[in-house]
Amino acid sequence: MQLTAPATRRTGIRDADGMAVASFVLGLLGLLVLNLFLGPTAIALAAVSLWRGTTRKGRAYLGLGLGVADLVVLLAFMQMDNAVSWSI
Prior knowledge:
By secondary structure, the protein is an all-alpha fold. The chain has helices at residues 9-30, 35-51, 57-81.
């Protein structure tokens, strides 16, 4: 007995589109705060959304780039501060 409706192709694409937008937002937010956690999360969401065939490829690639930029910013500030966190 099946309790839920079977997933359709459109549901999977809509989920992938949501992940692409989420990766963009988290990557953008990660430039300001919690870049150690939000950067890898943005990268993972972008990769999964691209793998699932999102129609919002631009947002997924931006999320991927911003996630990488989060980690680069963190590394740059860690080199300047000699700490795992950074402050202004």
